[in-house]
Every structure is written in structure tokens, then in C-alpha cells.
Write a structure and sequence with these properties.
Elements: H1 3-15, H2 18-25, H3 29-43, E1 48-50, E2 55-57, H4 59-81, E3 90-95, H5 97-102, H6 105-114, E4 119-124, H7 127-135, E5 141-146, E6 164-178, E7 195-198, H8 204-213, H9 218-223, E8 225-228, H10 232-240, E9 245-249, H11 250-253, E10 263-277, H12 283-293
Parallel strand pairs: 3-4, 3-5, 7-8, 7-9
Antiparallel strand pairs: 1-2, 5-10, 6-9, 6-10
Helix pairs in contact: 1-2, 1-3, 1-4, 2-3, 6-12
Length: about 300
Amino acid sequence: MELAELEIFRAVAREQSITRAAKTLERVQSNVTTRVKQLEESLGVALFQRDSKKMTLTPEGQRLLGYAEQLLTLAEEARQSMRAGTPSGKLRIGTMESSGATLLPKPLARYHAAWPDVELDVTTGTTQGLVDAVLGYRLDCAVVAHPGTASASRVAIGELGEGLEGTFLKTEELVLVLPATHPKVRRPEDVTLRRLTAFTRGCTYRRCAEEWLEQAGAEIRRTLSVVEMPSYHAMLAHVAAGSAVAIVPRSLLALHLDAAEFQTVPVRPVHTFLVKRSGFTTSAYEAFLRELRHV
């Protein structure tokens, strides 16, 4: 089993297409097809279910993908370690959408200016999705929100996932955003809207909003519905329309042109961390961490 074969296999698994994988890898389609077949023959199993539209992983292929992610990530880490002190190669960064908008732009700009040869790959997602990707070797590090209520120095990163290490970055103030026409809110019992617009499950901010609203009692726990949205712009559009409430960091709301037109209620502070797998380090990662610490 060669790393080149695993890289081809991973590309086909991600793209679900020989044609798209070949384009991504800048290889001819026949070469990609041959290498996948050779890998299947050497392992004695079918890795893909093939039909006219796409290629999907078999259970055996799904298991191999986990190993492939680990092996390819470790190989890249080994390559970078040969150039200790000089950031190189690729750095795969995950971030919550809010941090991508408020925390990362300046550090990433400085990083690119200092180390233009490093390939930065930035992905957004929920805290749980990002943690899973880090532990699954699909990301090198991620900016996530810790759900704990203790001080930043006392929360346990292990609560997010076993095998993680974290560096504290900042504390965000979460606010519940309501339409300006909503009656004044001072506590959960005052919220009359029963629709919360938020990201999918796994989002720490959504969890905080649900826990805060449910303090109002059993009635709101029974009637509260969550409308899942792909972005904060979509969430705030629902709030502006008077149909829902939303939970956002105050720093993100400050970027919204119509922020003054909303009613906001403080919910709680939430700590933001940069997490990585225990023991993982490269020069590219260390340089990125230094930039974040200069925010």
C-alpha cells in the first residue's frame, strides 16, 4: 500500500467521482481508475459501490478512509518536521463561522504575508463537527467554542473530545437577538416567540440558547422549535422578519449593518479555543498559533 494510492483513494471518496478526483489531483482519469482497482485487488475487497452517477464507499472503504486520513496526515507532518522552524506544506484549519468572520481575517492575512508558501485550507462548521474532523485527521486544528461555564483556565478541553489539546483565544459574549417589536425581554420567561433559528446540532451556541430558553419551564421546552439555517445572515433575516429569535456572539452582531434595529439580551460568556490532536505540531501550526495570540 503506497501513500500515492491512498491519496487517490481519498480524493475519489471525497469527490464520489473518478472524473472530479482526476481533475483535483491533476491526473488522467485512466490512471486514477487503474490505481483504485489495484488498491482494491491488493486488499481483496471492493472499496466503492459504482453506478452511473457516483461512487460511494462500501463499509470496507469507509474503514479504510479513516486509516488513509491518519496515514496521509502523519506523512505530511513528517515532511514538515524535516524543515523544522520553516513553515511549509499545508495547514488545514477549521473554524466556526462567527470566528471566521471576526477573529481570523487579520491573523490569516498576516500569516499569508509571512509564509506565502504554506497552503491554507479553511473549513467552517459547528464545534462538534470540527472536533470530529480534528480527531479524525481531516483537520489539523480548529477554532471552537467550549460549552463549559467555568473560567477559561478551569474548563477541561477533554469535555469536547478525548485526545484533544487546546489553547485559549478569547471569551465571547453571547446575546439572544429578537425583533425590535418584541416586548422587552429581561429573562427567559419574557420571550414570546417559540422559534429559534440556529445552526445544526453540535453548535455550542445553539446549545447555550436552548439551555437559557428552557429555564422558562416545561411549557417552552415543549413548544420551542429550532429552524436550522446555513449562515448568520439567514438567521438575522428571520429575526428581522419577526418570525424567530437567534443566538449570536456580540462581536459578530456588531458587523451587521442593521444591528441597532434588533433587541438583544445577554445570555452568557463562552470561551473560544484553538484545538488540535494531542502531540500534533508542525512549524506551520506553531506559526498560525503565534498569529492568533497577537489578535
